[in-house]
Amino acid sequence: MFGFAKFHVLNCVGCWGVRAVAKSFPPPGISFLQPPPGVPEVSRITGAVAVDGPSHCSSSSQPEASKHLKDIHVSARLMEDFLDLASDNTSKNLETCGVLGAFLESGTFYVTNLIIPKQESTSNSCQTVNEVEIYSIQNEESLLPIGWIHTHPSQSCFMSSVDLHTQYIYQVMVPEAVGIVMAPTDTSRKFGVFRLSEPDGMRVLKECQEKGFHSHAEPANGTPIYEDCSNIVFNPNLRLEICDLR
């Protein structure tokens, strides 16, 4: 669960562990190197990948408005690298969160930046601090806030009520924005890439004024509040710049 009220995206000058991203034509984040052996050139998340999570997450009843979304290319290493960065917290049963920054090229989003902000964590929450650092990087790199990623170190793979409110803020800014949940101890599902359904899930969150952990009523028409994303492409040729601000 992650609390984060506002976003932009950025680059971190002088950060440790930064991988340079050359911003030039053709698409900035793409390098035309051969993919690693045994790794397909691109791997798309489909509905079949994402039906084994909690009941709210079914994509079979995905609303029409949620199906017409631009593709989002994500580095094939993003999740692995994020879990490595989160490993110390995970071993202490503390959540870790990160922010995803992307650029838009020819109708496709490319996630080129993973920002790990300063944060305060518990076993079921993660709150960013010094958010101005995130805004500065976003502004410097002219990146779009395409989503966020966080761990559930000892919980299952789902979106909590707090997560849903965070996701709402992202989707208001960028309709394609995603929320990635990493659940390393969940034996049935290690990760999920989620979004609020449109218009129903977005309407529920817009009208909700509650804070903290609470329940949400299901939309009257039976559609889920949130769903699995089908517009995510894992691309081993996409370079990722990591900026750990902690």
Fold blueprint:
Blueprint: E1 43-44, E2 72-75, H1 78-91, E3 97-105, E4 108-116, E5 119-122, E6 125-128, H2 131-141, E7 144-151, H3 161-173, E8 178-182, E9 191-196, H4 200-207, E10 226-228, E11 232-235, E12 241-244
Parallel strand pairs: 2-4, 2-11, 4-12, 7-8
Antiparallel strand pairs: 1-11, 3-4, 3-7, 5-6, 8-9, 9-10
CATH topology of one domain: Cytidine Deaminase, domain 2
Name of the level-1 CATH class of one domain: Alpha Beta
The CATH architecture category of one domain equals: 3-Layer(aba) Sandwich
- Overall geometry: globular
- How large is the share of residues in beta strands? 25-35%
**Computed CA radius of gyration, to the nearest angstrom:** 17 Å
Structural class: alpha/beta
- In whole angstroms, the N-to-C terminal distance is 19 Å
Largest sheet: 10 strands, mixed
Helix content: 10-25%
Number of helices: 4
Describe the structure.
There is one protein chain. With 246 residues, the protein is α/β, with parallel strands linked by helices. It has a domain at 71-212 and 222-236: Cytidine Deaminase, domain 2 (3-Layer(aba) Sandwich), CATH 3.40.140. It contains 4 helices and 12 strands; from the N terminus they run E-E-H-E-E-E-E-H-E-H-E-E-H-E-E-E. It has helices at 78-91, 131-141, 161-173, 200-207, and strands at 43-44, 72-75, 97-105, 108-116, 119-122, 125-128, 144-151, 178-182, 191-196, 226-228, 232-235, 241-244. The strands form 2 sheets. Strands 1, 2, 3, 4, 7, 8, 9, 10, 11 and 12 form a 10-stranded mixed sheet that branches. The chain has a two-stranded antiparallel sheet with strand order 5-6. The radius of gyration is 17 Å and the shape is globular. The two termini are 19 Å apart. The model is unreliable at 4-41 and 46-63 (pLDDT under 50).
